[in-house]
Specification:
Elements (H helix, E strand, L loop, with lengths): L1 E2 L20 H5 L3 E5 L2 E4 L11 H15 L2 H8 L3 H14 L7 H16 L17 H9 L14 H13 L25 E2 L3 H11 L14 E6 L2 E6 L7 H15 L5 H16 L2 H13 L5 E9 L10 E9 L1 H12 L1 H6 L15 E13 L8 E4 L3 H7 L1 E6 H10 L5 H5 L3 H26 L18 H17 L3 H4 L9 H13 L15 H16 L6 E6 L2 E6 L2 H21 L2 H13 L3 H14 L4 E4 L3 E6 L5 E7 L4 H11 L8
Parallel strand pairs: 3-14, 4-5, 9-11
Antiparallel strand pairs: 1-10, 2-3, 5-6, 7-8, 8-9, 10-11, 12-13, 15-16
Helix pairs in contact: 2-9, 4-5, 6-7, 9-10, 10-11, 12-17, 17-18, 17-20, 18-21, 18-22, 20-21, 21-22, 21-23
């Protein structure tokens, strides 16, 4: 599971931090790289990389190459035409000999940058297909103006054939309109553009996987995680992602670099982790994947760590298929003291949770948490990037072996630094009281909420015996993110935070509470197009929580939506009662999860998390537009260069930050295009 940064993308919450103060280099670092459409592209620093040992640097280098080698997989998973579109657009960009200053070509460049950001033709958050601002006629003329040899033509295909194939994919709003559709009352597979299923209805897919499951199996595999489900001659067949199978050419390169990493692993336990992952890629066997996950969770000594594989299921409307991702990181030793304190007290938090005792874990096992520095981002972690991760996602592994939680602090640092002085707080916060509280405590409480969300929230609670882990289906991701968020919200206000030395006083938590409610009720609407409902799981979760506590708190005026000068603001009148409401909703969400109450999940999500008030929405969009801010942010990666001696041995690894967004994306397409255009 991942946590993404929402309002902090546009609000600077600096001040009371537990880490060392900013250095001059941090203050002058060029965080902003590019700006287009609704996106701003940032850089992130990798502090202390230079202090690592040569072995650790070499390990990061090999793991980074393994990460980048899987790039094409995610594109193809997101839509079967994505690689063809990207390669065609890149060919035009690099070879077009017409007027590159024309409005059509400038709009073409913007669209290409959007495709890179979304890893395909759909927006990474809204899930809607991008609307190009250049014409189909220009596209046809541009494609035909360049040499056919640079185009991704299939055998016997002409440039005109390619144009006819791609024109509806790019320009027709009725073709693949939604990457992942979560709307109630329709076939979610037939109305989603993702490439996890082909020729298969929702009912057929659900029946296919339901037949596989054994309700008495206490250690079930993650059915369907690493495969595409297709229909061949009327029979449902899985195409497994593995060496020699689907995505085999990319996986071959991933395995090549993982074997290199194996030779410089920090210890035997880490070697065993990498070896198990290689074995999984070789076989595609999900029992082997579970063995890898268990070993990965148990490796707590290694400084360098990584995620690499088919991990999160947000993009699959049924919540089964894993999108490919990778992140390479190393431990921030100073800041990790904060998360270690939390994990050491995991049983206390579990015992004192406001949920029904039936749903509490009697013995919390193996919860480890750390603050990390991201070294490379790839797949579903790039360019859009989480700020926290808690894995593995398998409920039984989490119960029996625990989980590993990370807070990615150099990413939140980049968000914060790039947001200084943007005017967001002044526009949307009710008064100087909220603004000063945010300035003083906001960064600290946001990091702590992330720690609690990832470290304990996802790892808390248990399913009752016999409950299907996939029983909540399309609503599972929203419910799970709400559960983890509520856990963090409930405990960030607990006196235990002061006792453990994690917060300085009883006022601090109010910064997180105010920000969260303001975001859930108002400001996250900047990410929703006029007339649209909320589709993305994290956004549904935020609105669900905020609207539920607002509604339930109305009799006691806990939260108000106040008007001033024609503008709507959030005012929290009673923070203590707000905490009580968070606890009550947490209890209900946990009940839904623990009992597999699909109808309960559907009712909560559809009633509170989906629909948008059009009047408020219009107002928020108008106010936000005046600030000239990008509601979404992505990142470019640093560049690692291996310095070798005459014998070809690596003697150092240098890091640089001077590559821009276009340069990086084009280089990745040249260097890491490991898959055919159609798979």
């Amino acid at each position: 599971m991942k946590k993404f940064l929402f309002v902090l993308m546009t609000v600077a919450f600096l001040g009371c931090r537990s880490e060392k103060p900013a250095t001059p280099a941090m203050e002058t670092f060029p965080y902003t790289v590019d700006r287009f459409a609704d996106i701003e592209i940032l850089r992130y620093r990798v502090p202390d990389f230079e202090t690592l040992t040569l072995q650790q640097k070499e390990l990061i280098y090999y793991l980074s190459e393994a990460a980048l080698s899987g790039r094409d997989i995610l594109y193809d998973q997101n839509n079967k035409f994505n690689l063809c579109v990207r390669r065609t657009l890149e060919a035009v960009y690099e070879n077009y000999r017409g007027d590159r200053q024309s409005e059509e070509f400038r709009n073409f460049i913007t669209y290409l940058k959007q495709v890179w950001m979304g890893n395909g033709i759909h927006h990474h958050y809204s899930q809607d297909k991008f609307v190009p601002k250049f014409s189909a006629a220009f596209f046809a003329q541009a494609v035909k103006s360049i040499d056919a040899e640079v185009l991704p033509l299939e055998k016997g295909e002409t440039p005109d054939d390619l144009i006819r194939k791609l024109t509806p994919v790019i320009f027709d709003p009725t073709v693949f309109p939604k990457r992942t559709n979560q709307a109630d009352g329709v076939d979610l597979l037939l109305t989603s553009a993702v490439n996890f299923y082909e020729g298969v209805t929702q009912a057929e897919a659900e029946e296919f996987y339901d037949r596989m499951r054994n309700p008495n199996d206490s250690t079930p595999i993650s059915y369907g995680l690493n495969s595409k489900l297709i229909k061949e001659n009327g029979v449902l067949v899985e195409k497994t992602y593995k060496l020699g199978g689907m995505y085999g050419k990319a996986i071959e390169q991933i395995v090549f670099w993982l074997n290199k990493a194996l030779s410089v692993a920090e210890n035997d336990k880490q070697k065993d982790v990498i070896h198990s992952l290689i074995k999984f890629y070789e076989t595609g066997d999900l029992k082997t994947y579970d063995e890898y996950c268990i070993k990965w969770v148990q490796d707590t000594a290694s400084l360098v760590d990584f995620v690499n594989g088919f991990t999160e299921t947000y993009a699959d409307p049924l919540g089964l298929k894993g999108s490919w991702e990778s992140i390479v990181n190393f431990k921030n030793l100073a800041s990790t003291k904060r998360t270690e304190t939390i994990s050491e007290n995991a049983q206390w938090f579990e015992n004192n949770s406001p949920i029904d005792n039936r749903f509490k874990k009697e013995n919390v096992k193996g919860i480890t948490a750390k603050v990390v520095t991201a070294a490379i981002l790839a797949g579903d972690c790039y360019p859009s990037t989480p700020i926290g991760i808690n894995l593995p996602n398998s409920d039984w592994i989490r119960h029996d072996y625990g989980s590993k939680s990370v807070t990615i602090e150099n990413i939140t640092e980049a968000y914060d630094r790039a947001s200084l002085g943007n005017g967001f707080n002044e526009e949307f916060m009710w008064s100087d009281v909220e603004r000063e509280r945010a300035k003083k405590y906001g960064s600290l409480t946001n990091n702590l909420h992330t720690d609690l969300h990832e470290c304990l929230g996802h790892g808390s609670g248990k399913l009752l015996p016999g409950v299907d882990p996939n029983g909540l289906k399309a609503y599972a991701s929203t419910i799970e993110e709400a559960r983890a968020d509520l856990f963090g919200l409930y405990y960030v206000a607990d006196s235990k935070m002061l006792e453990l030395g994690l917060l300085p006083d009883h006022e601090a938590y109010k910064a997180e509470y105010y920000k969260y409610i303001m975001n859930g009720l108002l400001t996250q609407l900047t990410r929703v197009q006029t007339g649209k409902n909320i589709e993305e799981a994290h956004m549904r979760n935020r609105q669900l929580i905020a609207r539920w506590v607002y509604e339930k708190g109305l009799p006691e005026n806990v939260i108000e939506l106040k008007k001033r000068d024609g503008k709507t603001y959030v005012v929290v009148n009673d923070y203590e009662k707000l905490r009580i409401l968070f606890g009550k909703l947490l209890a209900e969400i946990q009940r839904i999860k623990s009992t597999g109450d699909y109808n309960g999940a559907k009712t909560l999500v559809e009633n509170y998390g989906v629909k948008v008030d059009p009047v408020i929405h219009k107002e928020i969009l108008e106010r936000y537009e005046k600030l000239n801010l990008a509601p979404y942010r992505g990142f470019v990666n640093p560049v690692y260069k291996a310095i070798k001696n005459a014998g070809g041995e690596i003697r150092d690894v240098k890091i640089s930050y001077d590559e821009n967004y276009v340069e990086q994306q084009l280089r990745y397409s040249r260097q890491y295009s490991n898959l055919p255009t159609f798979n």
